[in-house]
Protein 1
Amino acid sequence: MRLFSILAVIVALFGGYTWVVLNWSYSSGERAGYVQKFSHKGWFCKTWEGELAMVTMPGTLTEKFEFSVRDPDVARRLNESMGQRVSLHYAQHVGVPTSCFGETQYYVSEVRVVDVSEAERRLHDSMPALTPPAAAPAQ
């Protein structure tokens, strides 16, 4: 009977810890780019896993952002927006004890398709204006 009580306490602590790390986020933010890979995978625990290609400036190397999706509605909207520039709202959950909830620490909760002309306008507005160098005085 004592062994059963100890086992029940351990299971309850594990369950409580899992609930806390899934409902409390370490950080949250937005990432924009193009979803280049998105799949439903796993042997026992099927999870949606994706990869966002982020290009900061034309001509620079692409940075990859790997993420997980737990909400089937968000996964459906991501599948519908493949090939378009998107903005993903995510929350980072550190210390999730198993990959049954997702293979990454980053869980996407919202997807928004970004108008490319709007993104280019924002990039242009954020860059400093270049002024031509002053002409050297004639001697």
Protein 2
Amino acid sequence: MKQRSAKFGIGDVVRHKVFPFRGVIFDVDPEFSNSEEWWNAIPAEVRPSKDQPFYHLLAENSETEYVAYVSEQNLESDGSEEPLRNPHIQQIFDKKNAGHYKPKVNFAH
């Protein structure tokens, strides 16, 4: 598998291209790094390739907040500047600046 550089970084606010959710990136895997069970649960006709960055998001939709794991091909920058309400954001990030949250200095995973 050929590894690519990540298009997005920690703190970037993104939205899913297909599903109605958005979030802030809190971790990046250079390529797929989840379970085969998770991978196989994605319908084959829409399953992304594993050789691209995958992002961990503090995500939200109109109903709830959650953690999402999303391939780069399914994300785009979110330019709405609407505030995110995921309660975990304040544990990892300090403040938002035009589509980007600044990670807290003392945060490590």
Protein 3
Amino acid sequence: MSPLDISLADLITRLDEELPHADGLARISEARLRAQTLSDLGDQLIDHYVSKAKQNGASWTEIGDAIGVSKQAAQQRHAPGPFERYTNLNRHSIVLAQEAARTHKHGFIGTEHILLGLLGEPRGLAYEVLIAKTESEQRIRDAIAEAMPPAGEKALRGHIAFRPESKEAIEQARRASADLGHDWVGTEHTLLGLIHTEESPAARILRNLGFTPDELRETIKTEITKRSATRGKR
């Protein structure tokens, strides 16, 4: 086993089990998508420790040496970006949104992909809030599927850009976090960001499912308070 307690054989076995009837070419395409997801997670892992090193006073020259690149390259690749204060769960939901866009062969990451990413992270507060209201994950997935654009002809490689409304939702998530007095941006803030991007597909989906911005905000405030109280009793 590798230091991550996962091997190539594990990845092959899982893919084969999940796509038992796929032909060889379909498995190649799926393997490439999963490899990209692993690469994205790896970048986020490095970003996490770069951020900690910067907080502890490390210079970009020292960080570059640790990574094996120049100071300029380290700064360009790992300088704080729009996801700087995102929790690990929320970062993972964004990776899943990108994976959803690739799976559907879309050349963009829309708010519908971001909502799908939140559903893919059941440990997040957004997932709990969504399921508590709708009582059905499948109901939400069906609503997203109905709003999803037709699949493209070819999955893109490399970077997939966010649509303008997705960028707005990301900014709205940061604003929601600041408005609530939080120093993190969690999946719950992303959910608020989506519903506040009023003309986006995700906002329409959420409204059709019975969510409103004010009610959603109050629900999230209540749930965060409950979680804080629970941690305080441990």
